[in-house]
Amino acid sequence: MKNFLNVNDVNDVEVLAQQAIDIKKNKFAYKHLGENKTMVLIFLNSSLRTRISTQKAAQNLGMQTIILNLTQDSWQMEYEDGAIMNGTTAEHIKEGAAVISEYADIIGIRSFPTLTDKEKDYSEFVLHKFLENVNVPIVNMESATVHPLQSLTDLMTIREFSNKKKPKVVLTWAPHIKPLPQCVANSFAEWMNKADVEFVITHPKGYELAERFSGKANIEYNQAEAFKNADFIYAKNWSSYLDYGKILPIDEDWMITDKKMQLTNQAKFMHCLPARRNVVVADDVLDAAYSIVIQQAANRENATQAVIKTILENNQV
Ligand code: CP
Question: Domains of the chain by range and CATH?
Fold first, then answer.
């Protein structure tokens, strides 16, 4: 693994998830690996879990960490080739990214989609601009189309909480007041499609994910039907991919409630967080013993550590 950009950088998702579970048992066993090395974490968007868990993961491996909130703390960056920079942008990505990579052994980047320019978002424009201009490995901390650190964590968590070899995992769309990216759902789908699970996606019509992410998943438009016999319910809102970035009018109530969870096979409830209570998911679900969202969030540290450890070992950075 040179970079960790998406699921295609991973040889075997189940093996990496198991490595994360193993690391959790002895977090400081590889502290020598990152000694005298620095990970720079670049945020173009807000974060709680990714910001803290990635720092912890790198520090557990002996690395130093530096956070740069690129849109607040630094010069406004220009990404377009050939731009005449006589406006608000003061530094071009060609110099900015190259200079950051002089200070870093690994770079983490978070950059959300525009939700207005589908072509640009789905080409991973910002992530690739960084890739073109750095000479160190990059870890995707959530980009325009995917959130692989989250998805690895999700698979790790499913393996920890399941005694079945092939559990039924249901990704369900849930409502939200704002248009959100498709990246968590896209990413979860492509990881589940490579994992040994029975995978179902349920959403209202019009919320189909890009086929390259939904892949071989079973699509069920009836949420109650999808929930039957489920071992894991993974809730997430996303805006429409087809009518790009839009919230579509829907008739049924798709919020996750305890009553709906009772349709399942005593399923565990998962969500990447943050989750708006009583909009996306009811209090009685998040407060139930079957909700594992806190344990899931805690696993972000271990999953990220498995990724950074692999990069440090493979690249000898
Ligand atoms: N799940 C997740 O990525 O959380 P943050 O946006 O808080 O980092």
Answer: 7-146+300-315 (3.40.50.1370), 150-297 (3.40.50.1370)
